[in-house]
Amino acid sequence: MTKNTLESQFFKLLGEQLTFARRKKDLTLKEVSQHLNKSKQTIDYYESGKCKISQVDFEKMCKIYGLQGNINIDVKIE
């Protein structure tokens, strides 16, 4: 598995966990985007793994969602 493939898989899985956390808090993309001063599309891209999330935005999202930055991600390397 190449580095790019592994990285893509990581951000996709991270995005899925962020989506789950947002929905659990009953927040919309719009509400999160307003907290982060980002576009709704950017938050959608983070959640879909289409773009890398910065550490700063990740930490802000964790704070909004009441997370401690402890997201479990299982990456399978074949």
Total strand count, please?
Answer: 0
Q: Supply Rg.
A: 12 Å
Mean pLDDT: 87
The number of distinct helices, counting runs of at least 4 residues, comes to: 4
Q: What class do helices, strands and sheet pairing give?
A: mainly alpha
Question: Order of SSEs, N→C?
Answer: HHHH
Major sheet: size, sense and barrel closure?
Answer: none
Q: Beta-strand percentage?
A: under 5%
Instruction: State the end-to-end CA separation.
Output: 7 Å
Q: Regions with pLDDT < 50 over 5+ consecutive residues?
A: none
- Global morphology: globular
Q: In terms of quaternary structure, what is this? A: single chain
What's the helical proportion of residues?
55-70%
Provide a compact summary of the structure.
The chain has 78 residues and is an all-alpha fold. It is built from four helices and no strands.
